[in-house]
Amino acid sequence: MRLFTKATAAKVGFALLLLAAGIYYGMSCSRDEPDRLYVSAINAAAKGNVELAETLYKRIIKHYPNSSVRKDAMYRLGLLDYLYFNDYPIALEEFFDLVYTYPRYRHTFDAYLYIARIYIEQQGMPQKGIEIYEKLLSTTTSSEGLKRLLPRLAMEYESVDNIPRATAMYRKLLGLYRKPPPNYLYEYAYLEYLAGHYSDALRDFKHVSKVYPGTSYSVSAGIAMADCYEETGRSEEALTLLDSLKSAYPTQTSIIDIKMQSIANRIKNKKK
Q1: Model pTM?
Q2: Average pLDDT for residues 108-135, to the nearest whole number?
Q3: CATH code assigned at 240
Q4: For all residues of the chain together, what is the average pLDDT?
């Protein structure tokens, strides 16, 4: 039978106290460790040591599943593989892992955008990218998010010749602005033209010129208006419009002259 004196008991008690303090300190250090690793990874990447940053992000992801910085490490790891290592299949897996594990994470929206870009730009799968964009469209309510998403979606629909859907995306996009950017106004009018809605396109090109006079978009819109006139059998009006453009934009006369000559040749051939 083992006997403990008061002195021994005091020593044991003190040892237990030290052990408890050590456990608490270890737990505290454990909680701080992923934060420290995360800061080190960011600093390493900033200095160009992306291999070290990758290693540190992976350590956080693997060993600290409950850390508050784990989701940030996952996102930055995906960015490293996408932007620096050009390992698109791996980046795709990492971004998917992130959005499924942390659907409410502040960068989930951006991760989905990267997923779509990988499908479209790296894997030649525009329809898969469109599916991702449409999924985002069904859940995105902020105007800033929509302003980033809708132009991409419209462009992809146009690339697969789905003009009605592309037009619908631009229509929705224009509604988000008090004064839409000129490229969006022009693209919307151009899609109307591609769809054969020449009267609507003519109206919308006129709107571009009115809202952004004296700009390159105004010149382009004027030339496009001439196309609308010609498509509706009003070639003489097209020539008159182009002639007025030459006076208004003397630095653009060469391209306008080429357009006028092509219309004049078509008029001449029709009369033969």
Answers
A1: 0.82
A2: 97
A3: 1.25.40.10
A4: 89
